[in-house]
């Protein structure tokens, strides 16, 4: 028979997998109320839940909408549990930290936002710099967040050239060996990624998650 | 099948009629030309393309359109602002009626809007597209260009469900009004492989609530599938046909069918779906096609 704690964590996990942000919020508050370790709740319920969902997604048993809903539900839970974790002097163990953004001159948001949500849902910490992001902002983000990977999206043949410029700027700032860099977006190709010295390229959101997993193995 | 309880708008955009109850009008077919990596484009940056091949594609589509009775609207895609004028000029000369201007980014679309204003083509243009993220400068450019027709894209990146898509409709209508748009088409925004199911229901709900001509680019879903899992050519074409037919069964008024090269199969599947829907509408509700050019009277010949 499950203990009250196990039952609550199972429910929390199920709510995260179902993308039920309201239920996750309610159960996360309950976790704190009854004194369960919030870090344990994040790792055993939220992250485990979304990882299981991620596997289903890779196997074609879950879809983008499920992953986005799970990521939103996880965010709702984290916003409550994180505060308590910090109060207790702890921190969450993510699978890795990714800084992501659409390059300067390009305001295309859809693909980048879907990739960000899918990475969050796959258990990564994602810092989304938004759209129209200049090289300097990527450099500041590397210094500030110390990410494992920088992800750059560009939708236009004009703005994909910025991916090269940003990689060059990161090199100039002596930060290139501190991060892996991946690129994506409609006009980009694997050859382009190689040509500009990126560590990887993904043709779509699903492949981006696979690529990140591979690079951080 | 069904008819909508709400009155359905029928728009006349530069001679092409679109909208209405199921069975009234043929599905309008929107195919893309000069899209990224289109083989007929020689230089995307300058807008140089093979005119002969472009003309052949347009002629072929016109013939198919005349055969099935489904009107066509060409979607002129472009990635570079300076290239748009050349492409727009060509399409405006070679095609009768309306055409879409479809830039990869706001900057390109704005360049297209300015160009059509300069050359006096605004009346023939459908702006593709306005989203909830459309910025002020783009809204101003559409208004200044006096473009009166646009596709509104129900993009909701945080909630790409049926509910999420409907949720952004009021916001989109407010943006369209600000941009001076009078002829509104709604694209219910496909983002995932199985989306032809839920977007079809979204089409039904948008039409039931707003009465506006509505459709989708279901081709994108099939292409995503093809990229992820190898589909045989036969299954790929069948998948395109099924994906095109389901939204039509739920009331779609237009289908963005992808590259113009796909016209032969796309028109065939949509025309057949139109004929089935129209035959039901006639039997069940006494709704007859509003044109003798309807696929119901053509495809079975």
- Corresponding CATH architecture of chain B: Alpha-Beta Barrel
Sheet having the most strands of chain B: 8 strands, parallel, barrel
By DSSP, the count of extended strands of chain B is 12
The level-1 CATH class of the largest domain in chain A: Alpha Beta
- How many domains, in number, for the residues of chain A? 2
CATH class of chain B: Alpha Beta
Name the average pLDDT of chain B. Answer: 95
Quickly give the structural class of chain A.
Answer: alpha/beta
| Second-tier CATH architecture of the largest domain in chain A | 3-Layer(aba) Sandwich
In spatial order, strands of the major sheet of chain A run 2-1-3-4-5
At the fourth level of CATH, the homologous superfamily of the largest domain in chain A is: Cobalamin-binding domain
The CA-CA distance between the termini of chain A, in Å, is: 36 Å
Largest sheet of chain A: 5 strands, parallel
Mean pLDDT of chain A: 90
The ordered H/E elements of chain B are EEEEEHEHEHEHEHHEHEHHEH
Distance between the termini of chain B: 24 Å
Q: Report the largest inter-chain contact.
A: A-B, 26 and 26 residues
Q: How does this model look, in words?
A:
- The complex is a heterodimer of chains A (217) and B (301).
- Chain A is an alpha/beta fold.
- Chain A is 59% helix and 11% strand.
- Chain A has a 5-stranded parallel sheet, with helices on both faces.
- In chain A, α1 (4-17) packs across α3 (38-58).
- The longest helix of chain A is centred in the middle third of the chain and has 24 residues, at 64-87.
- Chain A is elongated.
- The termini of chain A are far apart.
- In chain A, 47% of the residues are buried.
- The radius of gyration of chain B is 18 Å and the shape is globular.
- Chain B has a single domain (10-295), classed as Dihydropteroate synthase-like (TIM Barrel, Alpha-Beta Barrel).
- Chain B has 10 helices and 12 strands.
- With 301 residues, chain B is α/β, with parallel strands linked by helices.
- Helices cover 44% and strands 19% of the residues of chain B.
- In chain B, α3 (106-118) packs parallel to α4 (136-144).
- In chain B, β6 (72-78), α2 (84-94) and β7 (99-103) form a beta-alpha-beta unit.
- The two termini of chain B are 24 Å apart.
- Chains A and B meet through α4, α5 and α7 of A and α3 and α8 of B.
